[in-house]
Write a structure and sequence with these properties.
InterPro entries: Amidase_Cbmase (IPR010158), Bact_exopeptidase_dim_dom (IPR036264), Peptidase_M20 (IPR002933), Peptidase_M20_dimer (IPR011650). This protein is α+β, with helices and mostly antiparallel strands and about 425 residues long. The chain has twelve helices and 16 strands. The structure holds (2S)-amino(hydroxy)ethanoic acid and manganese (II) ion (3 copies). One manganese (II) ion binds next to loops.
């Protein structure tokens, strides 16, 4: 169902400009694997932020940063005392990522700003947020910027988080001149928040639909586990005398995946795994792995989390090892979006002559944090190539991107005149 969609009365989103800017931003942090690497608060991420802020400035917005470096741009309405309508997302990425994850939402918001700035000023101000460190891959805490903005994580605690080389979030924000004094969103909640994002899954592609209204987002729990055994000679040590931490970790990994059998709706991923001392002829003395648990129901997520420690202790014991650490790295709660906001998005999709498909998100998003402080909804845009994401293969069609942002613009413009 591609091709042209019925236009509506509101200003049309400039799809050309959106596509151009997605391409331009994708050059910042170009990775050798052909994708994009803009890990949070690296020079590449800061360069990406500066490029986006230059485009925000062109629309006449006032631009500030808050205590965790979130960019907050505001286009004043005729009644600036009213709480603003906020659009946003992120431009930091995982390693060797695609060009759409987060960027579609931020650059879509830029296009909505351009369309609104070109017309009669609405009552409410229109604000755009570019959140710091949504991905969490460098500092180990996902949705960092939006969690602080929404009062779910203290600024001091967040600023003190360090990466594996000991560089703190605060240090990196200072290096890039992103530390600011703008009020946190929780202190002045927006009237509403909207985010456009690629689905990062196969559902819309399979159903041949370009867009959907997102009904909610899974909760996520990241846990790091270390098992300790004993280094030993790979040849001379009899098998029954070994305390092989690598073997214990492999057994644990299989048991973690088996959790999905007794917890319907749970997803499990072991994204990082390594053994020490990483020598071909030494039985591993230690092994570390990270677990990414997700569920749309809090009870399912909590039950899976509580099972982890027992599984790790049991796997360690089975192979004569010890469980040394089982620490939570990050935790976000599942979020159900405001039904009225979801209806607005679905209604605008139907106004374009399309089914108002509602869909739950298996990926985490800044919107799940914003949902704790104001009415929130998301627009999903179809992902191509089986929905692959967090990969250079990530792809979406220009007309689907334009339609998704057009839907967001139409909902936003209604809210701006609320
Ligand atoms: O992991 C996630 O779902 C998101 O991309 N941070
Ligand atoms: Mn994202
Ligand atoms: Mn992502
Ligand atoms: Mn995400």
């Amino acid at each position: 169902m591609t091709g042209t969609y019925r236009r509506t009365t509101v200003p049309e989103i400039d799809g050309e400009s959106l596509w151009q800017r997605l391409a331009e931003l994708s050059v910042v942090g170009r990775a050798t694997g052909g994708g994009v690497t803009r890990l949070a608060l690296t020079e590449a991420d800061a360069q990406g932020r500066r490029l986006v802020e230059s485009w925000l400035a062109e629309t006449g917005c006032e631009i500030n940063h808050d205590a965790i470096g979130n960019t907050i741009a505001i286009l004043p309405g005729t009644d600036p005392g009213l709480s603003p309508v906020l659009l946003g997302s992120h431009v930091d990425s995982v390693v060797n990522a695609g060009r759409f994850d987060g960027c579609l939402g931020v650059l879509g918001a830029v296009e909505v700003l351009r369309a609104v700035a070109a017309g009669p000023r609405p009552r409410r101000s229109l604000a755009v947020a570019v959140f710091t460190d949504e991905e969490g891959t460098r500092f180990g805490r996902d949705l960092l910027g939006s969690s602080v903005a929404c009062g779910l994580l203290g600024p001091e605690e967040a600023l003190a988080i360090a990466d594996s080389e000991g560089r703190t979030v605060e240090h990196e924000l200072r290096v890039h001149g992103l530390l600011g004094t703008a009020p946190l969103l929780v202190d002045r909640p927006p009237h509403a928040y909207l985010e456009t994002h690629i689905e990062q899954g196969p559902v819309l592609l399979r159903e041949n639909l370009p867009v959907a209204a997102v009904t909610g987002v899974v909760g996520t729990s990241w846990i790091r586990i270390t098992l300790t055994g004993a280094a030993a000679h790979a040849g001379a040590t009899p098998m029954e005398m070994r305390r092989d931490a690598g073997l214990a970790m492999s057994a644990l990994r299989l048991r973690l995946h088996a959790l999905t059998d007794d917890h319907p709706g749970l997803t499990v991923a072991v994204g990082a795994m390594n053994t020490l001392p990483q020598q071909v002829n030494v039985v591993p003395a230690a092994a570390t792995l990270t677990v990414d648990l997700r569920a749309s129901e809090e009870a399912v997520l909590a039950k899976a989390e509580s099972a982890i420690r027992l599984l790790a202790e049991d796997a360690a014991l089975t192979y004569g090892c010890e469980l040394t650490t089982c620490e939570r790295m990050s935790r976000t709660a599942p979020a159900t979006f405001d039904p009225g906001m979801v209806d607005r998005v679905a209604g605008r999709i139907e106004a374009h002559g399309l089914p108002g498909r509602r869909l739950w998100s298996g990926a985490g998003h800044d919107a799940q944090q914003l949902a704790t402080i104001c009415p929130t909804a998301m627009v999903f845009v179809r992902s191509q190539r089986d929905g692959i994401s967090h990969s250079p293969e990530e792809w979406s069609l220009p007309e689907d991107c334009t339609l998704g942002v057009q839907i967001m613009a139409e909902v936003a413009i209604d809210l701006l005149n609320d």
